[in-house]
Amino acid sequence: MTLRRTLARLGVIAVAGLVSAGLVAVPAQASTSPAGERSLAALLTSDGNTFDHNWYDYDIVTEAVLAVLAAKPSSPVGVLADGSVPLTAFIPNDRAFQVLVRDLTGRWPSTEKKTFEALVGAVGVDAVEAVLLYHVVPGATIRSKDALKADGAKLATALPGAAITVDVKSKWLRLIELKDLDRNDANPWINPRAFDLNKGNKQIAHGITLVLRPLNL
């Protein structure tokens, strides 16, 4: 069975869990009717799903999703594989995870693979799952034009009880800060050059500069 088909089957299980848990909610000023149904999992694995030397793409978050689903096949993270379900994900680049590992362990891993291994080793799969869910807003396709109108909005995430706050610093410069639950660390910004990844589909993503952190990380 191919990786994509495996992810799609896992996604069906996870979507049912999200609906039954009441996690699918539509924030204000969000579009929910784009035509395409390519999933974010398909987007993230389209480059061959390998670590590389580019710290500003999304290999580590891809491997994190796969690691969680391998350990916990019914994880809600699997919703990323069902392109029929609208959602918005804020995805940290590989450098963001390197910064997180430095904060957690005091070490700078020299490669993406070592960064990923250090992350899982430091916090475990359950915490990685929680972090991933904290980056997903289920039930709505929030495009860049929606986000730039959402100053002050609190977005409910797929991590139960955890929200992130949108702080639009400049509509003209397309600068948006995302405020997480951890007040002791710097907040991520949406990369103005990484808006609307997977544009035209129900599942959309925006690249961010740091990892969003729930209180217990």
UniProtKB/TrEMBL annotation:
It comes from the Bacteria. It holds the Pfam family Fasciclin. Residues 1-21 form the signal peptide. Keywords: Signal. This is Fasciclin domain-containing protein. Residues 80-171 form the FAS1 domain. The keyword Signal applies. InterPro entries: FAS1_dom_sf (IPR036378), FAS1_domain (IPR000782), TAT_signal (IPR006311).
